[in-house]
C-alpha cells in the first residue's frame, strides 16, 4: 500500500536515501563500539568495558529508530552488512592499540562525523523536502550523538 503522508514520493525517496546512509553509519559505529567493549585492555578495563556497553546500547536503539523512520516514509531500510559498508561514510576499521584511548579517539571521530552529517541534513529535510518530522527526528539524534561524543571526549582529558 502506498504511503500518503503529505510529502511527495520523490521527496520521501531523497530523505530515505540520506537516512539509509545514516543507518549504515550508525551500524558501523555500533559494531566498532561493540569491538571496543570486547577488546579494550588496560588498567581501566572494567570501567571502559561498562562504558562501551552503555554506548552500544544507545546506538542499538538509534539504529532501530532510524530504520523504522525509513519504513514510516514508505521505503525499505537497508539491512545487510554489504549494503551498510557501501553506504557508510565511516571507515570500518583503523589500526590502533586496544587501549581505551585508542578506542575513544576512533569512536569520537566517528560520532563527530555523524553529528556533522546530521547537522547538514536538518535544514534540507525541513525546507527542501518538506519533511519537518524527519528534520526534528535527526535533530534529536544529533543531540544524542553530541552527548555521547561529550562522554568520549571527557574520558580523553
TrEMBL record:
<dbReference type="GO" id="GO:0016722">
    <property type="term" value="F:oxidoreductase activity, acting on metal ions"/>
</dbReference>
<dbReference type="InterPro" id="IPR008331">
    <property type="entry name" value="Ferritin_DPS_dom"/>
</dbReference>
<dbReference type="GO" id="GO:0008199">
    <property type="term" value="F:ferric iron binding"/>
</dbReference>
<dbReference type="InterPro" id="IPR009078">
    <property type="entry name" value="Ferritin-like_SF"/>
</dbReference>
<dbReference type="InterPro" id="IPR023188">
    <property type="entry name" value="DPS_DNA-bd_CS"/>
</dbReference>
<dbReference type="Pfam" id="PF00210">
    <property type="entry name" value="Ferritin"/>
</dbReference>
<comment type="similarity">
    <text>Belongs to the Dps family.</text>
</comment>
<protein>
    <submittedName>
        <fullName>DNA starvation/stationary phase protection protein</fullName>
    </submittedName>
</protein>
<feature type="domain" description="Ferritin/DPS">
    <location>
        <begin position="18"/>
        <end position="157"/>
    </location>
</feature>
<dbReference type="InterPro" id="IPR002177">
    <property type="entry name" value="DPS_DNA-bd"/>
</dbReference>
<dbReference type="InterPro" id="IPR012347">
    <property type="entry name" value="Ferritin-like"/>
</dbReference>
